[in-house]
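Example (one chain per record):
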Amino acid sequence: MEILLNLIKWLVDFAHSTGYLGIFIMTFLESTFLPIPSEITMIPAGYLIYQDVMNPFAVLASSISGTILGSCFSYFIALKYGRMLIIKFGKYFFMNEDKLKKIEDFFAKHGSISTFTGRLIPGVRHFISFPAGLAKMNLTKFCLYTSAGGSLWVITLLALGYKIGENEELISEWITIITIAMLALCSVFAAWYIKKNSGKK
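Predicted structure:
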């Protein structure tokens, strides 16, 4: 816990010194394949909003644009090189062309809901752009649902950082609550989506 608090303190200082550009860079990297938890960026940013150091609208603009562009970076990497990499190295990860075809078919039918909910699930949000790129999901839809899911997640973390204020010891407890709430929200969306499409082929 002490390491987490020290890291958050460093990120507060980093975001403070680099401003909105720093937030953009961190959220861009978090939205690529790099396993950087968005919590360590957005919670400190929310804390700086609480201190009246940063403007909430500028923080939102920086973080959401970073999320979209980082996701698009991963999307285009997968679009251009994904198939080649899977054909060449997929056997080492139990992946083959048949499974790739299933991914493509799935995203052709359910890419929108998958992209939106994927941005809300820990451990998934970093990688959801890759199957979307592999499946050649419509770029406009990809950006739209990435923006919607990313915005919801960003606003939630900023609100947490604002609420915590100086009570950093509450971070672990609240992150657990938020994760459970987001998983429940995704389950609701999935149930609604299944029900809505149950009568379709």
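Caption: The chain is about 80% helix and 0% strand.
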